């Protein structure tokens, strides 16, 4: 397993814990579905999903943006990295796509 894969797994676990226990803002029911770190450690893409409607998603997105600096500092203190990349939060639409496909399959005779 390459080094970045192990680092991504570690960051995903720590990030889930940070969001669950440290962030005081209301994030709703959020799940970190993946973390991708660029090879030069410039960016860390954090993929997440939210259970709820569009309004819940918008609240979560704004809460994540407000807490971005705090989250980055928490990652820096928990994970030993030469450089902590810039955080980029991206909504993972895989769940929605899966639900749409499931609906289509249920409608087929």
Strand order of the largest sheet: 1-2-3
Query: What would CATH call the class?
Result: Alpha Beta
Spans of at least 5 consecutive residues with low confidence? none
General form: globular
What is the CATH superfamily label? K homology (KH) domain
Number of strands: 3
- Rg over C-alpha atoms, rounded to the nearest angstrom: 16 Å
| CATH architecture classification name | 2-Layer Sandwich
| Alpha carbon gap, first and last residue | 44 Å
The major beta sheet can be summarized as: 3 strands, mixed
Number of helices: 4
Secondary-structure element order, as H and E?
A: HEEHHEH
Average predicted confidence as pLDDT: 88
Features:
single chain, 109 residues, alpha+beta, GMP Synthetase, Chain A, domain 3, three-stranded mixed beta sheet, 4 helices, 22% strand
Description:
By secondary structure, this protein is an alpha+beta fold. It has a single domain (3-107), classed as K homology (KH) domain (GMP Synthetase, Chain A, domain 3), CATH 3.30.300. 52% of the residues lie in helices and 22% in strands. Strands 1-2-3 form a three-stranded mixed sheet. A hairpin with a 5-residue loop joins strand 1 (29-37) and strand 2. Helix 1 crosses helix 3 (68-78). The longest helix is centred in the N-terminal third of the chain and has 19 residues, at 3-21. It is globular and about 55 Å long. The model has no long low-confidence stretch (mean pLDDT 88).
